[in-house]
Amino acid sequence: MTDQHTEAVVAQGLQGCGQPLATVYDLAVLDLDGVVYVGPDAVPGAAAAIARAGAAGMRCCFLTNNASRPPEVVAEHLRSLSVPAEVSDVLTSAQVGAALLAATLAPGSRVLVVGGLGLQAALTEVGLVPVSGMDAEPVAVVQGFSPELSWRLLAEATRAVRAGLFWVATNLDLTVPTPHGPAPGNGSLVQVVATAAGRGPDAVAGKPQPEPFLDAVRRYGARAPLAVGDRLDTDVQGAVAAGMPALAVLTGVCGVTDLVHAAADRRPTYLGADLSALLDSHPATAVSAHSATCRAARVVIIPDGDGAAVSVRADGQDPLDLLRAACAAAWAWTDQGGAAPSTTGLLQALARFETTTAWAR
């Protein structure tokens, strides 16, 4: 992973791979929420895909921005879903945030925890003392997602931030995926504190910062890592910042419109419906003028007076190939200064494919 490789990922966008990804890359840095599971339940086929990728030689590091649970609990949850995982295979934003604080504060320093058990355990592991209120005289505050987070604790966080304490947010994800759709994430709750306190965090530990990805690479000594996620603004952007190729899957937050409109630093190297994409080769896309092709799929950008519209000619093509072609065409168009294209035509073309109902948005 080098600066040159990062530039290649951003400049080229989608790339082809003639062999299954699991045989080309030695480490998958896997996001969890929306990729391996949603809430308590596994994403269909995820466990089998991870097992088959492992059999092909690919190791897995489970990197999550969710700071609410200790690695032991996360690993146990994964094993309950038939996903092979050891505690050492889990890396949370709570651990990254705790390491950041440990590098900044004296050993034994007290830190106000605005979050759950995952943050408390991570701080204790690095020799810091978690506390729950300002009366304990903390010298810093760390905020991470917890579904049990109370108004009282948000008020204590505001008090701490207004007092000038060093403030670390484990991540800024605005939403978390649930079986009923997106729900407020840590980023939304950080905004609550920032609005009340009049300033934002001093540091952010988790994705899209590059450090968690680099930590995963160092932990495994990986030579050819691949990031896998469902969010362009954290999983993919963080991978690009770390100089790492990324596979975006469509089982969580991001959908068609997000991908077509992706900024240059949020564009994945590969697209897949789900984790079975690790076991597949990936076709290349070709861009010509206002159009792009991916195997039999072709997408044309048609300029109009108000910007652009996506016109899709789709006769029996694979829906993922249509999406790949649409991304390639739209990214080339916007990189040349064109307006963000409408996805109406693409969504209409995808609507006839039953497999796209979950992600055609």
Question: How would you sum up this structure, described in words?
Answer:
52% of the residues are buried. The longest helix is centred in the last third of the chain and has 17 residues, at 319-335. The protein has three domains: 3-65 and 208-279, Rossmann fold (3-Layer(aba) Sandwich); 94-204, Rossmann fold (3-Layer(aba) Sandwich); 286-356. The radius of gyration is 21 Å and the shape is globular. The chain has a six-stranded parallel sheet with strand order 5-4-1-13-14-15, with helices on both faces. 35% of the residues lie in helices and 20% in strands. It has 361 residues and is an alpha/beta fold. A hairpin with a 2-residue loop joins β17 and β18 (297-304). α5 packs across α6 (117-125) and α7 crosses α8 (186-197). The protein starts with a helix and ends in an 11-residue tail after the last helix.
Q: What features would you highlight for this structure?
A:
single chain; 361 residues; alpha/beta; Rossmann fold; six-stranded parallel sheet; 19 strands; globular; disordered N terminus
Give the count of structural domains: 3
Q: Class of the largest domain in CATH?
A: Alpha Beta
What is the general shape? globular
Radius of gyration: 21 Å
CATH architectural arrangement of the largest domain: 3-Layer(aba) Sandwich
Under CATH, the topology of the largest domain is which?
Rossmann fold
* Uncertain residue segments: 1-12
- The H-level CATH homologous superfamily of the largest domain, spelled out, is HAD superfamily/HAD-like
Strand order, main sheet: write it out.
Answer: 5-4-1-13-14-15
Biggest β-sheet description: 6 strands, parallel
Assembly type of the shown chains? single chain
What structural class do you assign from the helix and strand content?
alpha/beta
Give the overall pLDDT as a whole number: 91
How much of the residues is beta strand, in percent? 15-25%
Count of DSSP strands: 19
Span between N and C termini?
33 Å
Helix content: 25-40%
Counting DSSP H or I runs of 4 or more residues, the number of helices is 13
